[in-house]
Design goal:
heterodimer, A: 134 residues, mainly beta, OB fold (Dihydrolipoamide Acetyltransferase, E2P), 5-stranded mixed barrel, 3-stranded antiparallel sheet, 8 strands, 13% helix, B: 408 residues, alpha/beta, Peroxisomal Thiolase, Chain A, domain 1, 9-stranded mixed sheet, two-stranded antiparallel sheet
């Protein structure tokens, strides 16, 4: 089964170093995850905007064991839910702090999008964030 | 503010649906116990409890399993009708599914079928074999349930990660400590120690043991994660008129229900420390005419401690932010202010997949029928709050049940 076009375009954005948020050409509202029709006005006239890549961390966890099949080699890894400043939310990977752990992270921390290389996006097509500096 | 939304069935009316029997077998690891064997056993136990024989049943509602597609197909294609010998007379057999909240929706389905006359005597059946299944296969299967493969699975998310994120947000919002969170698990274990059918009947548990267990998904320790188990249970519903004809004098009715589907994937939930409970509760209280202070017991979905503390706050059992401390003070314990998850819950009786919520519901019905073993029967139990949640805690479902005396 072919990957849907909205998924391919979102992932192409990540591979190019951009976090894309779906935007409705009719009502102007952002949608995340991207939808096939705008959940606000039901328009199918949808496009993309480039996110500023900043937001707050609603919650996160550090998975230390019991990874799904194919993810075992990533352990340990941290997953978070980020509320973007554009008003939508998404699940992301969190970059570890300098000592390799995530103990400095807290809920409601300001976080920022980190561009990762296209090979990594090919393997793990999801956004990565880290604590914002300052 | 919830809209006015009443049930169209009067208490004690001829068509008022009632629970009249339950059946259950032990939860744990039983590799030698077959799927169909277990279903047959609980069906016969529930029928006996209801004073019925298989021929009395016209409708079977099936709670799904998550361990295997072949067993699921057997259920969907009416195997239990034949196993019980009611092929040729049974009117309808079908599956209801919304994950952990399935039992709540199965009750709504049976309730509607009975009240409108589409069904007379309904048997609801559940069996899961998680305890005997391959653990790695189940982890991978669960990472594809309630998680959108194209958007979220690439992060490596799975069920403990979801439970951990909800727990962390809840602890952040409420200021609850790790020891207070662990006290929820201890309350559940105290109840399991009174339930011979519970997976951990013989094993006491302390806060210290929990906090010393290894970290699985920060902030969750291994003893705070649900133990996957084999289990099966069943219940029977009929109309008040049929129950009276059968000489049944005490039964359990549905005073009201409320629900809210707040998201599909966890990342789209606005507040992981609240979920859909407040709206679900408002809808339920509107229908029942009684409130949380009137309940004698509560059976609230507990795949992780925070799932329950968030639930009891939204339902109004504990003040906002005080759910974990409510448990730490012993309020949910045997002999406590409001006995909570009196079978031991998913965390201590065992997590039987979709069946975890069914087991809590069956325990609530059993308590209201005054048929629990004496050591854990809550005295003069008249009203119960049942709460369920499915998928990535996508919904909050509440059933308000009450014991009812049927006139001679």
């Amino acid at each position: 089964m072919q990957t849907p076009v909205i998924v391919r375009e979102f992932r192409a954005g990540l591979a190019a170093g951009d976090l894309l948020v779906q935007s409705c050409h009719d009502c102007g509202k952002p949608n995340m995850w991207p939808r096939y029709a705008c959940p606000h006005c039901q328009s199918e006239n949808l496009g993309w905007l480039k996110s500023a890549g900043t937001g707050t961390l609603h919650s996160f966890c550090v998975l230390r064991q019991g990874a799904p099949e194919g993810y075992e080699e990533d352990l340990p890894y941290a997953i978070g839910v980020v509320k973007l400043d554009e008003g939508v939310q998404l699940a992301v990977r969190l970059e570890p702090q300098s000592d390799g752990d995530w103990s400095a992270y807290q809920c409601d921390d300001r976080v920022e999008f980190v561009a990762v290389d296209a090979a990594q996006i090919e393997k793990r097509p999801c956004a990565t964030f880290r604590r914002a500096v300052g | 503010m919830a809209e006015e939304w009443k049930l169209h069935v009067a208490p004690g009316a001829a068509n008022d649906p009632v629970f009249v029997g339950v059946g259950e077998i032990p939860t744990g690891k039983f590799p030698e116990r077959g799927f169909i064997q277990a279903l047959t056993k609980v069906a016969l136990l529930a029928l006996k409890d209801a004073g019925m024989v298989p021929r009395d049943i016209d409708t079977i509602l099936l709670i799904p399993n998550l361990h295997g597609a072949a067993d699921q197909a057997d259920l969907v294609f009416s195997r239990m009708v034949e196993e019980l010998g009611i092929h040729g007379t049974c009117k309808s057999s079908y599956m209801v599914h919304s994950g952990g909240s399935t039992s709540d929706n199965a009750v709504r389905s049976a309730h509607g079928l009975i009240a409108t006359g589409h069904a007379q005597n309904v048997l609801v059946l559940q069996c899961e074999r998680w305890g005997s299944a391959d653990l790695n296969e189940m982890i991978t299967m669960l990472s594809k349930n309630g998680i959108p493969g194209e958007w979220e699975l690439p992060t490596g998310i799975q069920f403990n990660a979801i439970g951990a994120m909800i727990t962390r947000r809840y602890m952040h919002a409420s200021g609850s400590t790790a020891a207070e969170m662990a006290s929820v698990c201890v309350t559940l274990r105290n109840w399991a120690n009174l339930n011979e059918n519970a997976m951990f009947y013989h094993k006491p548990l302390t806060v210290e043991q929990i906090l010393a267990s290894r970290m699985v998904a920060d902030p969750l320790h291994s003893y705070e994660c649900p133990p996957m188990a084999d289990g099966a249970c069943a219940f029977v519903m009929t109309s008040t008129e049929n129950a009276k004809k059968r000489g049944i004098s005490n039964a359990v009715r549905v005073a009201g229900s409320g629900g809210c589907v707040s998201h599909y994937c966890l990342s789209q939930e606005k507040d992981q420390a609240v979920l859909g409970w407040p709206l679900a509760a408002e809808r339920a209280w509107n229908q029942s005419g009684w409130g949380p202070q009137d309940a004698d017991i509560a059976e609230i979905y507990d795949s992780y401690a925070a799932v329950t503390t968030i639930g009891i706050e939204g339902i109004g059992i504990a003040e906002k932010g005080e759910g974990a401390r409510w448990f730490a003070e012993g309020n949910g314990n045997p002999g406590g202010k409001l006995p909570m998850n009196t079978n031991g819950g998913l965390l201590s009786a065992g997590h039987t997949g979709v069946g975890g919520g069914t087991a809590l519901l069956v325990e609530g019905i059993r308590q209201l029928l005054h048929r629990a073993p004496s050591k854990r029967q809550v005295e003069d139990c008249q009203r119960a709050i049942i709460g369920g949640s499915g998928g990535s805690y996508m919904d909050a479902q509440i059933l308000l049940l009450e014991r009812t005396k049927l006139g001679a």
